[in-house]
């Protein structure tokens, strides 16, 4: 992993962090839909990463979010699940031997692959976040509804961000 | 062994998931009051119900002992009543109405679940938030002695952090000279009749048989008898002494306890918090 990738990821982390904390935290759709765009950081980490490092980064990002949301542990747990979904999805769909692309992005992997990848990761992440937050099964419908609506919101924002930083390549 | 390593490294993503998931959930439940209260309450609803049923049987078995203690208390109250009646009313006395100034009120509660065998013992009682209970209220036993402090409350039940718990410290004093100390169960102590008073200043004189009472600092009202000194001057290595105390109350057969509501508890807490921020 060269230093350029590291710097790009640090900048991306800071950017997403600020957007999440200072903008999206105050944004909600009738208290029903709350987007968590910071998952894009974990989604866009490079392919060839050791699993432990991936988990540590995801967990650390979650803890940092928790510190600002006052919910220590919730986002950290969700991020661990997110890392697992990411690893599983990539190991199933991408050829392990030669990664043609350095990192999963819309421009590199195509809309279909990235859309499904982001949808699955975001869905499981949000599922854990909302169920840990509610912490009971009696409001199952409401929690699931919140989860799904937030999922759509986050997915929309993630795809938007990917389109904004679309790298035109010889595809 | 080698196969185990291969197995572990092949499915490392899954094992990492388990590790981080457990860490995350532990963090969540430990640090967020809401999640903790939910886990506590759900266990209390199930476990508390079961214990309540079991308790009906146990209550009958202990009926004789409870009767005795109630009779003893009745006798005590009657003596006090008699003492009050025999006050010479012919004398010119000014009557001061103190009914509106009562600071402490007692609320009787039944013990649903008792525990005294563990390192950290929690007692469950059948009064809760709807009866006006709040965390950190003092609990004493009907005869003599202190029980502990309210830990968590649900609507109808509450848990008490017993004196037999490593986090419980109760401010006490030696009755004859009012020297302060703090009552703890003590490390590596599994005797439920025994506790320790620590942090007694070095110069304080005490002898075996001295009575220990609550000091009035903290949640407990002043002067509740706690126990009798059994062994004095245990040196702790610093500038303070410790003493071993035989407790007056027996934790193993608790049936009823009194929760003490302090009318000024909130006021006191607020005041002390304010002065703490000034420091």
Automatic annotation (TrEMBL), chain A:
It comes from Pedobacter yulinensis. Keywords: Membrane, Transmembrane, Transmembrane helix. This is Rod shape-determining protein MreD. It comes from the Bacteria. The chain crosses the membrane at residues 6-24, 36-60, 72-94, 114-137, 143-166.
UniProtKB/TrEMBL annotation, chain B:
It comes from the Bacteria. The keyword rRNA-binding does not apply. Residues 111-261 form the Rod shape-determining protein MreC beta-barrel core domain. The keyword Lipid biosynthesis does not apply. GO terms for biological process: regulation of cell shape. It holds the Pfam family MreC. Keywords: Cell shape. GO terms for cellular component: plasma membrane. Belongs to the MreC family. This is Cell shape-determining protein MreC.
